[in-house]
Specification:
Largest sheet: 6 strands, mixed
Radius of gyration: 28 Å
Shape: elongated
Structural class: alpha+beta
Distance between the termini: 82 Å
Order of helices and strands: HEEHHHHEEEEEEEEHHHHHHH
Length: 376
């Protein structure tokens, strides 16, 4: 090939490259990235999490408004973060998640601040960062397998604000320390080892605690015990509740169903109303046992919403689910048996009939109040 042909081919190739770069320039110019930091420290059954995010991007992503986006100084930015505390907490609840042995810890936003980071090669001036202090209650878990799931600025609608986001994680969890970078392609990491026995026992305690301290669940079981005509009828009712409750909990944990709280909450309240009312007007109704079984399904779905589990199906999740479910059933059976024994003794006294009607009426009114409140 002659020299002139080589030159012409080189020039043609250069022109083609320039044309392609020119065409791609608008798209390249639109790309915006952001970074931040995450500092996690476990302390007993709590995890402290300091999260740093670019203030402007956070304000745009969650819709804090133009006044927040254009805040002139750090004092004004701090005021905007405080004003939008609940909005920020709601946004982060499903995007910065911490699990111990597959059980999700409960997050609260304890405080916020603003910190200026110095200019870098990528920024012409200092950049204000929102510093968010998160606290996670891990329900008594002081050790085990920690899992962190991070999806800030990666949900639908945030693409208009940022194209890529990374966070540098510095962690000290359960005695294990390290650093790792999370981004859209690598949104989670885990550390530590899970003891299946300890996890099952802890989950069982959580399950028993939920049924004994959750007022609507406890009141439902209490109404079953008070209205039972005999130990055999109570055993059948509690057994039906246990079976369907387990099925509802399993269906929700496995992700097969996910009813909205606006529907589930009122129905659980109505289940309390039904059992309390039939204690007086129809304790022998042939519909009572089927309704109790249906109510068990609703309560199981509600339990799953109160305590969320990780998405990865494996022995860790199976152990936590089994322990939690066992705790619910043991707690319900213990509560029903204890109250039934007290009621059996109380039936010997003349005042029991009146007390029974008054307690049933109070339970019906409470259930109806919950029903109305949860609808609004």
């Amino acid at each position: 090939m002659s020299t002139s042909r080589v030159v012409r081919a080189a020039v043609a190739g250069l022109v083609a490259v320039l044309v392609l770069l020119t065409a791609a320039a608008p798209g390249l110019a639109h790309v915006r990235t952001s970074d931040g930091w995450s500092r996690l420290r476990s302390d007993g059954d709590r995890v402290g999490y300091e999260l740093g995010l670019e203030y402007e991007i956070l304000a745009r992503a969650i819709g804090m408004g133009m006044a927040a986006i254009e805040a002139p100084d750090d004092g004004a930015r701090r005021a905007e973060l405080e004003e939008h505390h609940d909005l920020i907490e709601t946004y982060l609840t499903d995007r910065v998640r911490v699990f111990v042995d597959e059980v999700e810890c409960t997050m609260t936003l304890d405080g916020s601040d603003v910190r200026q980071l110095p200019a870098t090669d990528a920024t012409a001036e200092d950049v204000p960062y929102a510093v968010l202090d998160l606290s996670y209650d891990c329900h008594g878990a002081t050790s085990g397998r920690y899992l962190v799931d991070y999806s800030v600025f990666s949900g639908a609608g945030s693409d208009a604000v940022v194209d890529d986001h990374t966070t540098t994680v510095d962690y000290d969890l359960g005695g294990e320390r390290g650093r790792i970078v999370l981004d859209g392609g690598h949104p989670r990491f885990s550390t530590g080892e899970q003891s299946l026995g300890d996890s099952a026992l802890r989950s069982a305690g959580l399950g028993a605690g939920r049924v004994l301290t959750g007022l609507d669940h406890a009141l439902f079981v209490a109404a079953l015990a008070v209205g039972a005509a005999g130990l055999g009828r109570l055993a059948r009712a509690v057994g039906a509740f246990a079976v369907t409750n387990s099925a509802g909990l399993l269906a929700a944990v496995a992700g097969w169903v996910s009813p909205p709280d606006q529907v589930l909450g009122p129905l659980v309240a109505l289940s309390v109303v039904y059992v309390a009312a039939t204690n007086v007007v129809g304790p022998e109704s042939r519909w009572r046992l089927p309704v109790v079984a249906a109510a068990g399904l609703l309560h199981g779905l509600a339990f799953a919403g109160e305590l969320r589990f990780a998405d990865d199906l494996g022995w860790d999740l199976v152990t936590s689910y089994a322990g939690f479910n066992l705790g619910i059933e043991v707690g319900a059976a213990a509560l029903a048996a204890g109250l039934f024994a007290l009621v059996t003794v109380a039936r010997r006294y003349a005042w029991f009939s009146l007390a029974h009607v008054v307690a049933a009426a109070a339970t019906v009114v409470t259930g109806l109040a919950w029903f109305v409140h949860r609808l609004l």
